[in-house]
Amino acid sequence: MLVCYADVHGDLLPINNDDNYHKAISTASPLLRLFLQRKEEADYTTFGTDSLTRKKNTVLSAVLLRPDTNRKKPPVIISLPKDFRPVSSIIDVDILPETHRRVRLYKHGQEKPLGFYIRDGSSVRVTPQGLEKVPGIFISRMVPGGLAESTGLLAVNDEVLEVNGIEVAGKSLDQVTDMMIANSHNLIITVKPANQRNNVVRSRGGAASGSSGRSSDSGASYYGYTSHSASGAAAPVPSHIIQNFPAGDLESDEDDEDLVIEAGGEAEPIRRAPSNYSMPSVPLYQPHLDLRTTSTLSVNANGTLPASGSSGSLNNALAASTTPSPDRAMQRRNLEEDGTVITL
Amino acid sequence: MKRLRRHGQESQRERIKQELFQFNKAMEHGFPHQPSALGYSASLQLLAIGTRSGAIKLYGAPGVEFMGLHEENAAVTQVHFLPHQAGLVTLLDDNSLHMWTLRAHKGQSELLEIGRFTLTGPPGASPSVTSVTAVLPHSSGELLLLGTEGGHVFIVEVPGFRELEERNISLDQVANSVPEDYIGRRNLEHVEALQENPVNPDQIVIGYGRGLMVIWDLEKLCATQHIPATQQLESVWWTDDGKYILSSHSDGSYCRWMVGGEDGNEEEEEEEKSDIPYGHFPCKAISKIVQLPTKEGPPFLLFSGGMPRASYGDRHCITVIHSKTHVALDFTSRIIDFFVIKDGPRSAGEPSALVVLVEEELVIIDLQTEGWPVIQTPYLVPLHSSAITCSHHVSAIPLKLWERVIAAGDLQNTHYSKKPWPITGGQNLASDPPQRDLLLTGHEDGTVRFWDASGVCLYPMYKLSTSAVFHTDTDPNDNMNQSTEGEWPPFRKVGCFDPYSDDPRLGIQKIHLCKYSGYLTVAGTAGQILVLELNDEAAEHTIEAKVVDLLQGQEGFRWKGHTRLDVREDPVLFPPGFQPLALVQCQPPAVVTALTLHSEWKLVAFGTSHGFAVYDYQQKNNILIKCTLNPSDQLAMEGPLSRVKSIKKSLRQSFRRIRRSRVSLRKHHVNNAAKLQDANARLEAELAEMELAPVQRKIEARSSDDSFTGLVRTLYFADTFLSDSSHNTPSLWAGTNGGCVFAYMLRLPSVEHRADEPITAQPAKEIQLMHRAPIVGIVVLDGHGAPLPEPLEVAHDLARSPDMHGSHHLLVISEEQFKVFTLPKVSAKMKLKLTAVDGSRVRRAGVAWFGSNRTEDYGESGLMVLTNQGDVHVVSLPGVKLQVHYNCIRREDVSGIASCVFTKHGQGFYLISPSEFERFSLSTRNLVEPHCLVEAPQYSAPSTQHRPHANKASSAQRNARHESEDAEVLQEIQKSLEADQMLFSENNVKSALA
């Protein structure tokens, strides 16, 4: 698999190490256009000056794999695995007001601290009695290099509205702190960003699809993958990634996997007792693509990722689905012109 | 259909819940915090105490208690019972007067506030004109005389608080008739005292601050005599025969004045006797003086204060002089007030007991027994005579142990008077408590106090002192009852409040009592663990200490905290009661954080921030030592810094200084207002500052590197299936602050070889909870889902033996979750998340049995849980589902939450102040609260004939009151409806505008 990107000059350049990855991120303005190709199919001749000018409107999509949860945290495999892993995502875009943002932080047992502080404050609410000052919880500080900062989705003075689906109104600072720490393995916070300029602009189409029989746990999601994914999220028309969340997935049971060490034995994570055991489902990360397009995409649209999970076949599937296609490009352009984005 | 059925089940469950659970704050035990006023009714035989927080508490015979709370958050400054009625008047420091009455309702009395009143002066008058300084309920029971700061006396009719303006005694009326030669006639100052002539109710004496006393005739409305004292007046007392008036003054003197004759009779108004009892050098004021006659012989003279300013100005003393006996009772805290109880049906007999309310306790002195011993109080006991450091509750004590503890306690109380409790008002209607419950409190000075917590009165049973085992640096000259021969004034220390522990290492941190075997284990601040055994005889023991090194060779450790306690090597004679059997000292000597005892296996397990160990107190050796310390945990490694210790020490010293220099707080109304303003301003400034620098909280997942992850929070012995599902074995479970559970399998030899064969412990399991929250409790549930019984419980036929056929379950309670695991293979079965859902954390958890109030034989085990938000929850077992929750303690009351203990029958205790326990109940069946009746005394004076005597009349009155209440409620509803309408229309207008 080969990952390439289009730089400001329209050149197609490869991403295969940290340096050119950072370069790619830093030059992205505002959209980072990615190309994924099978290695064997890669046309190395395309690299270079003006190589992309002829297909300027190609739709680029990021494709990502989530770890197969059958195994404990296998590395995410795309090309150069260590450089990519989900750290955050914007979820429930279709059901939240545009002024709010629901952010999921992936701790994944990584070393990086969550890295933010909260404080008491007050915000103004519109009530039947008029404007009213009410106490609220705000993000007060970001730890440089922490997970929260690196996502770019949270900022100082953002008002925290919910923690893992529970409203914080009426709760004390200490209570909210404890809730966040208790949920730190899978923290989902809904904020009202202090800076409302970078809000996701949601189209009507999105709202319509959001109501199509999905629970609040599901819906459109924006994923940030890397430390600079904010640029993607803040883009005027971000690429949608549709995630197939089962309802129970939000309440990740990672913390159920307590470690039991039997005397003289090996450590093993505790499995839930069979009575109410439910395997955390395999989440699907589908490229943002219109489903009415080519048949190559139907594999993903049906949500059938190869169950074997072997990286080879995954790569194949992904590569197949993400190969830029002129057809799709056309369709996409049309959609853009309509100003509507259709999501599932 | 399915849904319907489920609905039916749910409603049935709701009904069962209502039959099982009910939240009640039943009552308060202990001594009221910051008492500020004392009152006594000789006719009702009731004592009343008002507090700085506006509470009013009434006490009579043991079990007779009432409590009321003023809506105003103001201190009660005076309490006066109305003569011959079941009512009283309180004066608050906001100058409001309140009328309370004891009203019978459903065969019980209840304390109700029935009226309030504030004096209003003429328009434009300064507030001092009506600021009340003295209150006299007239013996007719119909008048209240109010002396004010402006020097006026207002007369008010009670209970209605109707001002009788024409009878008021204004300052001008009095001042006009003051003799010309009286020095202070231009400014008589405030009314300091009002007293009625005991033999002539028409005569009262008005004492002014400047010193002048005026005898006023209420009928003739004129002054009949002027007593020209020239020292600042502190108090006035009219002797029982009406012939003399005693006045006490700010210079430490008192005078006796003859009453009688008309003005102008020079000889008779001369002071007959004047004395400064502790004279020569300047003395402090005598704040109150009382003289009581005896049938034969000289009268009793009692006064508070008057000590020589320079040498004993810091003492809190009441002097009692009777014939040749002269004693200065020396209290350990400030005197609030005192009174004397007299014998006889109409309290006309001999003085029998002196009742003194000091800031931290109530002391009653028997005046009829030689040596004036103290009478043991059955209630109002100062729980905090040394600060409470922990509590432990044991339900349903077997009678045998109960009697032995009482016997041991009786031997300690020989210095108390044998006389019965002299305050006997009211009837205790509460039925006898269903079982004997014991509350044990551990204290900072190394004592453990045993309280009878079965009923309404928390009665002290026995006191165990552990300090005898150790060498301490307490000053041997600090003996409480030491008095030097020929000392002047003749001091005698009284009272038991002594909060100054000189060695905080002695402090008790954990207690565990086995009620069947009488074995007790206590553990303290310096890592000491004592196992004690109840012995009915005094015995001499040499205590050998076993040192347990909990570090187990952990590298890089430096303990910077306190040192171990020095154990006395010579034999020590221990009085009957609990006597030490074994002593273990942890190294490093960190505070013991978990403790448990298994009396059947004769094992004690204990833990600190460094690890845990099991000690066999029969063979006296260690069975298991486990270090739980995380090498990167610097805080736990080093122990408390010496800096902290020194701060505490200096704090203690400064408290002593304050205590010495404390000047008696007297009425400074003007100053108070200024102070209040000042405090408010400071508070505002502080708040503003807080706005600038807001409190921040870091959001970070817990990691194994956090501080004190190795601190052992809970230890639990269980006979269960640890390794395989067919053989149950003894086991020990330990839970740490870092969410780790260690399980050890114990191999015990058979009973006949118990004394000589070694006991072994093998590690069996280790569970690391992924959420890493501190573990606060571990319980094993048997095959029926019931918690395993306590050791020896089954052997004594007091519990059903646990089900050993079905599979056992392990319940791990962390601060954040309740998780049930299967045994022996530890796999998660059920869980209940608490913190993730509502942000509260578990502070205390305990298994309790809840009986149904409908059917005698139905009941359930449940888990009582207290959170850091002060809420109590009941969680079902074994299903771990939330059943009910109630708000119990204010979330800001951290010490209250920390002090909470649960009983095994659904009740709980927590400290509402350093000296008071609140008792609450979650059970419908087990509820202890006072049930008592006080009847108004029969009084046949002509003035009270029109008052209703018959119950019928009073019930008619009650009905009337009900009706009026109903009307009020209706009005209220009407009003709120109207208000809603208003709002609605307003909104309409608004929307129309919009």
Structure described in brief:
The complex is a heterodimer of chains A (344) and B (994). Chain A is an alpha+beta fold.
Describe this structure in words.
The complex is a heterodimer of chains A (about 350) and B (about 1000). By secondary structure, chain A is of the alpha+beta class. Chain A contains eight helices and 15 strands. Among the domains of chain A are: about 1-45; about 90-200, Roll (Pdz3 Domain). In chain A, the strands form three sheets. In chain A, strands 4, 5, 6, 7, 8, 9, 10, 11, 12 and 15 form a ten-stranded antiparallel sheet that branches. The longest helix of chain A has 13 residues, at about 325-340. Chain A is globular and about 65 Å long. In chain B, about 15% of the residues lie in helices and about 40% in strands. The longest helix of chain B has about 45 residues, at about 950-994. In chain B, the strands form 17 sheets. A five-stranded mixed sheet of chain B has the order 22-23-24-25-36, with no helix packed on it. Chain B has a five-stranded mixed sheet with strand order 37-38-39-44-41. The interface of A and B includes residues 128, 174, 183 and 259 of A. Strand 13 (about 260) of chain A pairs antiparallel with strand 53 of chain B.
What name goes with the CATH superfamily of one domain in chain A? PDZ domain
Order of helices and strands of chain A: EEHEEEEEHEEHEHEHEEEEHHH
Helix content of chain B: 10-25%
Q: Can you give the mean pLDDT of chain A?
A: 61
Separation of the first and last Cα atoms of chain A: 27 Å
